[in-house]
Amino acid sequence: MIFPCEKAVWYYLPQIRADLAIELVKTGMTQSQAAKKLGVTPAAVSQYIHKKRGLQLPRTKLYRQEIKAAVKKICDDASVDELHFIVCKCCQLLKKEGETAAASEERQCS
Predict the structure, then answer these.
(1) Do residues 91 and 8 touch, judged by C-beta distance below 8 A?
(2) Helix pair 13-26, 61-75: axis angle to 10 deg
(3) Is the pLDDT of residue 107 over 70?
(4) Rounded distance, CA 62 to CA 89, Å?
């Protein structure tokens, strides 16, 4: 049995970090600066950017908007509590998308 938080740590959080890292670097931030903001190593950011880390899950427009909002807040030095809230929201969106995709696949197999 996989508990919801285990799935979040294994699948959703790496995707969120990858998406945040990519967007932070797109703003002109260096990989080292992005790593420091995210609390990961510069090597991890490089792997996120080159898609060697972080799954490539389907992402909705709403999820992408949340990532962009998170990046703006990170660049504006938002509080840790604000960032936790945004990451949790992104995680919930990925979970919902995953459940929707699984239900769609199940209907196709029936």
Answers:
(1) yes
(2) 60
(3) no
(4) 10
N-to-C CA span, the chain? 24
What are the backbone dihedrals phi and psi of residue 73, each rounded to the nearest 5 degrees, phi first?
A: -65, -40
Q: Residue type for 74, please? A: I
For residue 35, is pLDDT > 70?
yes
How far apart, in whole angstroms, are the C-alpha atoms of residue 89 and residue 45? 22
Is residue 108 within a helix (H) or strand (E), and if so which, with residue range? helix 80-109
What per-residue confidence (pLDDT) applies to 23? 95
pLDDT surpassing 80 at residue 67:
yes
Task: Give me the count of residues in the chain.
Answer: 110
Task: Output the six-digit token pair for 102.
Answer: 């699984």
Percent of the chain with pLDDT over 90: 43
pTM: 0.81
Burial of 19 by CB count in 10 Å (0-12 exposed, 13-18 middle, 19+ buried)? buried
